[in-house]
Structure formats: C-alpha cells, structure tokens
Design a protein that fits this description.
This protein is of the alpha+beta class. The chain has one domain: Nuclear Transport Factor 2, Chain: A, CATH 3.10.450.50. Strand 4 and strand 5 form a beta hairpin. The N and C termini lie far apart (35 Å). InterPro entries: NTF2-like_dom_sf, SnoaL-like. This is Nuclear transport factor 2 family protein.
Length: 146
C-alpha cells in the first residue's frame, strides 16, 4: 500500500485508524522499510519492516481473537520539524473496547517517540521508541501515570 503522508499529523492519524481497524498493511505504510524500533512489548527491538510486520500481525491477530477494538489517543504532543526530519514525542493511550458492546475494558498509557524523515515529499517513521516508567522498588511497569 502506498500512501503519501504530506504532514506529520497525517502519519499520526493513519497510525490511529490502522490500529482501530487492525489493518496491518495500512499500519505498516506509516513506517520506513528500514525502520528501527525499540518497543516496550515483547522484543527488545525490531529492525526492518519485515520484523516489524511479524510483531504487528501478532498484535492485531490477538486483538481480533479477543474481540477488542483499540482506540489510540496522542496526548501532550510535541513536534519538532525541519525540511526533511522530524521528531514527535507524546504520551499515547491505548484503550481497549469490546467490539460488540463498545464497553471500555482497559487502558494503558505509555511514552512514545517517533523519528520521521521525508522522502519524495512523504513522511515516514524510521525510528520509534516506546517506553513505560518503572517502579524502582518492584521493577514493575507503571502503566497509568495519567
């Protein structure tokens, strides 16, 4: 799927919609083929779109099997952009809703940073870092500081 993202906001909106629709190819269209991701779930890192595709496919499959729709909200969004590079950092909240009833089941908030570059006038994510703060006494993640 080839989509042109001419504004940073287009990238973020596509991310949100693709997650909600559980559309792997639409989601991956947001990323550069050489993407490097440090994710706070599962793997230490993903290098390249093929590795990221495996993780995203498993994530969306688990949501379908659980009958869950996931809504994404970006909060405290900061965008630093120049001609061909941009960085975005924010708090991202993923709220899971039961598909049939729409009832909210759970939510988590973590931190995310995207590094984007513009190629042929279209933005794509080439680096992503997802993190959660850790309680130093228990070693457990703190999922809902917000």
């Amino acid at each position: 799927m080839t989509i042109g993202f001419y504004k940073i906001q287009d990238v973020l909106e596509n991310y949100k919609c693709a997650v909600y629709e559980k559309d792997v190819e639409r989601f991956l269209s947001t990323y550069d083929v050489e993407v490097h991701i440090y994710d706070c779930w599962g793997n230490w890192e993903s290098k390249g779109i093929s590795t990221w595709r495996e993780s995203v496919s498993a994530w969306f499959k688990s949501l379908r099997e659980d009958g869950v729709s996931l809504k994404v909200d970006f909060n405290d969004l900061v965008v630093e952009e120049n001609l061909n590079l941009a960085f975005v950092h924010c708090a991202v909240t993923f709220s899971a809703h039961e598909e049939v009833s729409g009832d909210k089941l759970r939510q988590i908030t973590n931190r995310i940073t995207f590094g984007l570059r513009k190629v042929n006038e279209s933005w794509s994510i080439f680096h992503e870092l997802s993190s959660i703060p850790i309680n130093t006494e228990t070693g457990s993640g703190i999922f809902n500081l917000r």
